[in-house]
From TrEMBL:
<protein>
    <recommendedName>
        <fullName>UDP-glucose 4-epimerase</fullName>
        <ecNumber>5.1.3.2</ecNumber>
    </recommendedName>
</protein>
<dbReference type="GO" id="GO:0003978">
    <property type="term" value="F:UDP-glucose 4-epimerase activity"/>
</dbReference>
<dbReference type="InterPro" id="IPR005886">
    <property type="entry name" value="UDP_G4E"/>
</dbReference>
<dbReference type="InterPro" id="IPR036291">
    <property type="entry name" value="NAD(P)-bd_dom_sf"/>
</dbReference>
<keyword id="KW-0119">Carbohydrate metabolism</keyword>
<keyword id="KW-0520">NAD</keyword>
<dbReference type="InterPro" id="IPR001509">
    <property type="entry name" value="Epimerase_deHydtase"/>
</dbReference>
<comment type="pathway">
    <text>Carbohydrate metabolism; galactose metabolism.</text>
</comment>
<dbReference type="Pfam" id="PF01370">
    <property type="entry name" value="Epimerase"/>
</dbReference>
<keyword id="KW-0413">Isomerase</keyword>
<comment type="similarity">
    <text>Belongs to the NAD(P)-dependent epimerase/dehydratase family.</text>
</comment>
<feature type="domain" description="NAD-dependent epimerase/dehydratase">
    <location>
        <begin position="3"/>
        <end position="249"/>
    </location>
</feature>
């Protein structure tokens, strides 16, 4: 049993690779290092540097390493930037997924776990998002992830692909001090970089309909997320029936103010966040239930908010 992890040199993908290793499942990494880091790939793990758009390379990698399944994490993951770069986003996330699925079909690989996103829901009306919440993506990124889910479903009909899609919310923390989130757009690294450079972190709006006036979002620990990928992969290999998609959500969420307070406590750097105007389109609250994933994928919140901040801060500090 060997699985290919596309994007396995990235923040999330590297945690998935380690989660496979912890249970004795072989992994192979394919990554073009456009946002990943070669140093995130564990020593001894086969690493193929290249693009998922190179179908021949993907197919060769699958065959040469006797791959039995694919965790497809690679993609362009910046929802806001995708509005300015829609063609690039669709090229990487839709054409790239077509390339991976074509290579899988040609190599006879029949199992796929797809890295999807909460962005497929857009701005939901529900207090608690479920898998039945209407799908209404509002960015090219969210649209591309939904198309990715459709492609897997269509391949299931066409060639019997066994698959599931895991819809991520806000993935934070670190399960290994050597792996940190280097995204220039995510909240945790933005706050860390501000603190490390002596700047004051910013909160965008404090007049939302939430207990402390700041937006509430779903934050989940990357190691918990990676664990459920392993459970999903094993289930697919064992022939266990899985749902087409699962939300990996906390069920409760945390406010931006709570995040800032935890950041100050963990880092030991006292600060009073700067209050900036609201960003257009930011909803008051987006939180998802993880009940379906808890039933099928051993999903649970094993880490507190303090754990998430502490692990992420330690990993970021180790990169200096």
């Amino acid at each position: 049993m060997t699985w290919l992890v596309t994007g396995g040199a990235g923040y999330i993908g590297a945690h998935v690779v380690r989660a496979f290793a912890e249970v004795g499942i072989g992994a192979v990494v394919l990554d073009d290092l456009s946002s990943g880091h070669a140093g995130f790939v564990p020593e001894g793990t086969p690493f193929v540097r290249g693009s998922i758009l190179d179908t021949d390379l993907v197919r060769r990698t699958l065959r040469e390493h006797a791959v039995t399944g694919v965790v497809h994490v690679a993609g362009f993951k910046y929802a806001g930037v995708s509005v300015q770069r829609p063609l690039h986003t669709f090229d990487q996330n839709v054409t790239g997924t077509v390339s991976v699925l074509r290579a899988m079909e040609e190599a006879g690989v029949q199992h796929a776990v797809f890295s999807s996103s909460a962005s497929v829901y857009g701005t939901p009306d529900e207090e608690l998002v479920t898998e039945d919440t209407p799908l209404a993506p509002q960015s090219p990124y969210g649209q591309s992830k939904l198309v990715g889910e459709w492609l897997l479903a269509d391949q299931a009909t066409a060639v019997g692909l066994r698959h599931t899609s895991l819809r991520y919310f806000n993935v934070v923390g670190s399960g290994d001090p050597a792996i940190y989130d280097s995204s220039p757009h995510n909240l945790f690294p933005l706050v860390f970089e501000a603190l490390l450079s002596g700047r004051t972190p910013r909160i965008n709006g404090e007049d939302y309909a939430t207990p402390d006036g700041t937006c509430v979002r779903d934050y989940v620990h990357v190691a918990d997320l990676a664990h459920s990928h392993v459970v999903a992969a094993r289930a697919l290999e064992d022939g266990t029936s899985l749902a087409p998609a699962y939300n990996l959500g906390s069920g409760t969420g945390s406010s931006v103010r709570e995040i800032m307070d935890a950041m100050a406590a963990v880092t030991g750097i006292a600060f009073d966040p700067e209050i900036a105007p609201r960003r257009p389109g930011d909803p008051d609250r987006i939180v998802a239930t993880g009940e379906l994933a808890a039933r099928d994928l051993d999903w649970k919140m094993r880490h507190t908010l303090t754990d998430m901040v502490a692990g992420a801060w330690a990993a970021r500090k180790s990169a200096e």
